[in-house]
Amino acid sequence: MAIDRLGGLVARERRSNEPALLGAASGREYDYRRFCTTAWKVGNLLRHYGVRAGDQVGLLEPDAPESIFTLLGASLLGASVSVNGVDRTKAIVGPTDAVSALDSSTRRIGYGSVPAQPTVAHFEGEVWSENPTAPPDSVEPTATVLETATEQYTHSALLTQARALCEGHEIEPDTTVVLRESLSNPATIVGGVIAPLLSCATIAFPAQDRVGDVAIGANGAPEPRHIPLSAVHF
To answer: How is the chain split into domains, by residue range?
Structure first.
């Protein structure tokens, strides 16, 4: 079945033992089975804190695995994520120190260290205990799923660009795509997250001893191939 929503990237039938995500300094690794289940749990966590279709979730300092899971979890609810935005958000997700420092009445969810403030939820602890089933929400392909200060992007728009990159840059199931540009750029999300997931390939955060097959956006990267950000045409 053709994938027309980001939630389709973590559909039940896509679970497998193949690698989906290689984490950063923590060394975390997720196969497609654990990856899909974690995305479902994050969607359920966001729902628990009041996120619904049409709402916005803010991402602070987005270059972390938790940001990818937040994007996918929000997409399952029909919500959107705003990169480094904290205005009109229903919840804010980011490193514990960063979200704890915000003077905000919005629900804050911090990953990494356990928050000292009772008003800040702990991402890892709460995701672990969430229901490991996909949220039942019905989401339209034309729904907004990613926002910047000036633009809004739908499920359909992101997936269209990701398909073009998969074909033009030979992203296949055995390909490892390394994120060598910030996820604050929507083009990085398309080329470094959505395109690999479409092809059942592997997303990787940079590590000192890691060289993948394709780098997203960096000419000087050690990977033999790279995808320039200009290859994404919105």
So the answer is: 6-231
Topology at the third CATH level for domain 6-231 = Rossmann fold (3.40.50)
Distance in angstroms (rounded) separating the CA atoms of residues 47 and 59: 16
As a whole number of Å, the CA-based R_g of the chain is 16
Q: At what angle do helices 32-48 and 65-77 cross, to 10 degrees?
A: 60
**3-state DSSP assignment of residue 104:** coil
Give the residue, 115 or 103, on which the prediction is more confident.
115
pTM of the shown model: 0.96
Give the residue from 55, 97, 60 showing the smallest Cα distance to 182. Answer: 60
Contact status, residue 47 vs residue 18, Cβ threshold 8 Å: no
- The CA distance from 133 to 76, in Å, is 11
Instruction: Give yes or no for a contact between 139 and 78, defined as CB atoms under 8 angstroms apart.
Output: yes
For the chain, the first-to-last Cα distance in angstroms comes to: 25
> Is 227 within 8 Å of 216 (Cβ atoms)?
yes
Q: Which residues are 216's β-sheet partners?
A: 179, 227
- Spatial CB neighbours of 13, under 8 Å, sequence gap ≥ 6: none
Whether the per-residue pLDDT at 24 is higher than 80: the answer is: no
pLDDT at 26 over 90: no
- Residue 86 pLDDT: 65
Q: What is the mean pLDDT of residues 4-15?
A: 97
Contact (CB, 8 A) for 80 and 144: yes
Contact status, residue 185 vs residue 173, Cβ threshold 8 Å: no
Q: How many CB atoms lie within 10 A of CB 13?
A: 8
Q: State the DSSP code for 95.
A: E
Q: Is the pLDDT of residue 120 over 90?
A: yes
